[in-house]
Amino acid sequence: MEPDQLENLYQFDKNGDLQKDIRALRELGPAPAVALPGGVRARAVVHPELLKVIARHKLVSKDAGVHWPTYYNKQLPEDWELLPWVAGKHAFSTEYDNHTRLRDPLNKALHPRQVQVMTPRIEQIVAAALDRAAAAGTDPVGLPCVVDLRETLTLAVPIAVISELLGIPDHLAGPFQRCADTLFDTTVSREQMRANQGELQQTLEALINHRTAHPGDDLTSVLLSEEDGRDLTPVERMATIRLILVAAIETVGNLMGSAIKALLTHPGALATVRAGEATWDDVIDETLRHEGPAGGVPLRFPVEDIAITIDTDNGPETILFAAGEPILPIWAAAGRDPRTNPDADQFDLTRDKPQHLAFGHGPHYCAGAHLAVVQTEIVLRAAFDRFPNLALAVDGTSIGTTPGFIANGPAELPVHLGQANTAKVAENGHPSKRRGKGAARSAPPGTAR
Ligand code: HEM
Q1: Where would you tag: which of 192, 239, 331, 390 has the fewest CB atoms within 10 A of its CB?
Q2: For the stretch 9-28, what's the b/e string if a residue is b when 16 or more beta carbons lie within 10 angstroms of its beta carbon?
Q3: How far apart are CA 238 and CA 223, in angstroms?
Q4: Which long-range contacts link 200-203 to residues 24+ away (Cβ below 8 Å)?
Q5: How far are the Cα atoms of 27, 77, 103, 180, 225 from residue 243, in angstroms, in the given order?
Q6: Where are the beta strands (DSSP E) in 130-253?
Q7: Ligand 1 pocket test: which of 63, 281, 366, 376 has the largest number of ligand atoms within 8 Å of its C-beta?
Q8: CA pair distance 39, 51, nearest whole angstrom
Q9: Phi/psi of residue 424, nearest 5 degrees
Q10: What is residue 381's DSSP assignment?
């Protein structure tokens, strides 16, 4: 695209301030034109109703290989920053029968019954991460010091959980962590992106070789098995493992980080949880609404020219999308929309029904939503129980956000842990006793087109 044409498109905030982008885009209308990295033009969708219609529309596809001419005519640089988000042979980037075939093994592996089987192990992972946080919170002469919970807890836990789910052996844990750290950053240079992708590819090959030789009860072994993996090609198996890695770490870390930050900056809200007037589930739902962990998730393409009519503040409005025009749904925008949530910018646990689309909508609704919520609940409960005086070490407003427009969460979480509570976690601390609203996230409404 020519530079003068680019200037007319909305440019995402360079510091990754997604809420600033969402406010600005909402002012521009339901689907304003934005500039993606590399000067690619897309239509960003921020209107909640339009997001839902797009996600279920039979003539809107995620398959760039079939429905994005710019991609299948090879007009993008080979190292285009967002290529990993549109080029995968996995459930995330396929449609119809292919989507069902590639999604089925994931539905099985991430079913709430399977998550329940993983729960005791997740509790151990969280306890070990809190032990490491406690150790990091004491300096060499035994004095308390500041700990970054993003590093020691909110990223460490999902990395360990996904390593367990995928059967990643210890000797590959380091390379996996390095790859995971940078995958969501849409501001990395092309050289860096190429290097990250190269390392990720090598690590995935090493994982597949390892699990071919040493099968276990992990998802990689399932995808390689005669029974569940027989309908997948080797390329699709590799892509599916890569998808899980990309989908399941930063997002979960952001949910945990935003929830902890919200509670530490809203002591009244934390007090209502401690008093039993709100549940951890309420905290998670309100965090999903207030700081959707996934922002703009690339990309969708109209199969042909389409017109969609929605209600706007100015009455019914018809929005036109041209065939093959990239669409960027901004899932985090729905929760902050004042039309669906009064006082949407306020974090408020007394909200009746927080409305959000943090896990997407329709056939591509997040396959790991239940696992994400269960992990987060265990982390919140355990962290606030063990460190009752947990406090931010800096002013909450000085904490920046993760870079890029795909992920959305605090870039760091410097805290003082305070005196640890050495008493055992309360009996009612078990996640299976979660009540209410969020319990059925694996079977959301509207998963059909
Ligand atoms: C708080 C954490 C998470 C958030 C906010 C989140 C958000 C999302 C969103 C918005 C989508 C839909 C993308 C689209 O329609 O373009 C999605 C899809 C997906 N997510 Fe998640 N996710 C989270 C955690 C996880 C976890 C833990 C896993 C796996 C263990 C996972 C696996 C997937 C997969 C496989 C898809 C693709 C589903 C499909 O296309 O059929 N996610 N996620």
Answers
A1: 192
A2: beebeeebbbbebbebbbee
A3: 9
A4: 200/242, 200/245, 202/175, 203/172, 203/175, 203/176, 203/179
A5: 33, 22, 11, 11, 18
A6: 147-148
A7: 366
A8: 23
A9: -65, 150
A10: H
Contact, 8 vs 35, CB < 8 A?
A: no
CA atoms within 13 A on the CB side of 112: 13
pLDDT at 185: 61
d(CA 60, CA 324): 9
Closest C-alpha to 178, from 198, 161, 205: 198
**C-alpha closest to that of 223 among 363, 212, 84, 372:** 212
CA 37/CA 397 separation, integer angstroms: 28
Mean per-residue pLDDT pooled into runs of 10, the chain (449 residues):
72 96 96 95 97 98 97 93 91 96 94 97 98 94 95 94 94 81 68 82 93 94 86 93 91 97 98 97 98 97 98 92 98 96 97 96 98 98 98 98 94 96 56 40 49
Between helices 190-213 and 170-182, what is the axis angle to 10°? Answer: 150
Q: Which residues line ligand 1 (CB under 6 A)?
A: 91-92, 103, 106, 110, 243-244, 247-248, 251-252, 255, 293-294, 297, 331, 358-360, 364, 366-368, 371-372
Report CA(368)–ligand 1 centroid distance (Å): 6
**Structure-block tokens of residue 369:** 């939503």
DSSP state of 396: G
Say which residue the tokens 């056939």 belong to. Answer: 363
The ligand 1 atom at the shortest distance from the C-alpha of residue 93 is: 40
Distance CA 174, CA 306 (A): 46
pLDDT digits (tens, 9 = 90+) for 154-164: 999 999 999 99
